[in-house]
Specification:
The structure holds 2 protein chains of 2 kinds.
Chain A lengths: L3 E2 L4 E5 L4 E7 L6 E7 L6 E7 L4 E3 L3 E6 L4 E6 L8 E10 L4 E4 L3 E6 L1
Chain B lengths: L3 E4 L2 E4 L5 E7 L5 E7 L5 E7 L6 E2 L6 E4 L5 E6 L8 E8 L7 E2 L3 E5 L1
Parallel strand pairs in B: 2-11
Antiparallel strand pairs in B: 1-3, 3-8, 4-5, 4-9, 5-6, 7-8, 9-10, 9-11
Classes of the chains: A mainly beta, B mainly beta.
Chain lengths: 113, 112
């Protein structure tokens, strides 16, 4: 079956540095991708999304890049803050009629003061 | 708006017992989902619903049943709990033009 995976399970950065979290996906037919942030003891929360007809999308301090050639997705966080410490998941949506998402295993981001 | 709420927040069951987890959303979303999350892992889809009165199997449906009698509620049932069902269960909903899912706070279930 199709799966979404992440390259690294943990990432540690210094406060103020930029963070890059990577994701590899295997379903070339996926139409839509979302990054979620999950803080300890809480449910995942939407950060940013991107459609397959785009290669870059920017939000507030976050940028998502999509490379369909190598089926790779990344989340860049600028000027990382302690509040950014969390687990980050990428999710791909292949069946847009039901909005079902396939989630990767997540990357734990730790921000050191 | 309360968003997505889940009850209970915590539960301990003995093997073979049954229980129902309740999910409620007040955003008038058509789609609702139940996931389980095991330690250090991502979310796996158990069952989902694309509208009132409809349900469908996800990735890991065995041992679970669901019902969506009302648009705002999505119930997850465990008929005979097993230790392998120890997990954190998340409900989510989505609707409109966005595929963004809104998650509840989770239910931590332990089966002994």
């Amino acid at each position: 079956g199709e799966s979404v995976g992440l390259h690294l399970p943990t990432l540690s950065v210094q406060e103020g540095d930029n963070s890059i979290i990577n994701c590899a996906y295997s379903n070339s037919a996926s139409d839509y991708f979302i990054w979620y942030k999950q803080e300890s003891g809480k449910g995942p929360q939407f950060i940013i999304d991107i459609r397959s007809n785009m290669d870059k999308r920017q939000g507030q301090r976050v940028t998502v890049l999509l490379n369909k050639t190598v089926k790779h997705l990344s989340l860049q966080i600028a000027a990382t803050q302690p509040g950014d410490s969390a687990v980050y998941f990428c999710a791909e949506i292949g069946n847009t009629n039901a909005g079902k998402s396939t989630f990767g295993d997540g990357t734990t981001l730790t921000v050191k003061p | 708006n309360a968003g997505v709420t889940q009850t209970p927040k915590f539960r301990v069951l003995k093997t073979g017992q049954s229980m129902t987890l309740l999910c409620a959303q007040d955003m008038n979303h058509e789609y609702m989902y139940w996931y389980r999350q095991d330690p250090g892992m991502g979310l796996r889809l158990i069952h989902y619903s694309v509208g009132e009165g409809t349900t469908a199997k996800g990735e890991v449906p065995d041992g679970y049943n669901v019902s969506r009698l009302k648009k705002q509620n999505f119930l997850l049932g465990l008929e005979s709990a097993a230790p392998s069902q120890t997990s954190v269960y998340f409900c989510a909903s989505s609707g409109g033009t966005s595929y963004e899912q809104y998650f509840g706070p989770g239910t931590r279930l332990t089966v002994t």
